[in-house]
């Protein structure tokens, strides 16, 4: 789905960091170090990015029910 703009727990803005996080982790970097470099220190915010599953492309193939 779409990455939330803010953390559900604390309200910090995290939406802008997801693309950088996803790109660097896909290149083989350690997720922990990437989050540290992006200055995401709180556990709740790290959880939001680390556990996000991006499956919007799979959902978009289905037509809406009217």
From TrEMBL:
Q: Does the keyword Transferase apply?
A: yes
What Pfam families does this protein's entry cite? RNA_pol_N
Q: Which organism encodes this protein? A: Candidatus Iainarchaeum sp
Query: Is Transmembrane helix a UniProt keyword of this protein?
Result: no
> Where is the protein situated, by its record's location annotation?
Cytoplasm
**What are the recorded Gene Ontology BP terms?**
DNA-templated transcription
One cellular-component annotation, GO: DNA-directed RNA polymerase complex
Q: Which PROSITE patterns match?
A: RNA_POL_N_8KD (PS01112)
Under Enzyme Commission nomenclature, its number is 2.7.7.6
Q: Which residues bind Zn(2+)?
A: 7, 10, 44-45
Keywords, A to Z? Cytoplasm, DNA-directed RNA polymerase, Metal-binding, Nucleotidyltransferase, Transcription, Transferase, Zinc
Q: Name one GO molecular function term.
A: DNA-directed RNA polymerase activity
Q: What is this protein called?
A: DNA-directed RNA polymerase subunit Rpo10
The UniProt entry's sequence similarity note says: Belongs to the archaeal Rpo10/eukaryotic RPB10 RNA polymerase subunit family.
Which reaction(s) does its UniProt entry say it catalyses? RNA(n) + a ribonucleoside 5'-triphosphate = RNA(n+1) + diphosphate
Q: Which Gene3D superfamilies match?
A: Homeodomain-like
According to the record, cofactor stoichiometry and binding are noted as: Binds 1 zinc ion.
Q: Which domain of life is it from?
A: Archaea
The cofactor required is: Zn(2+)
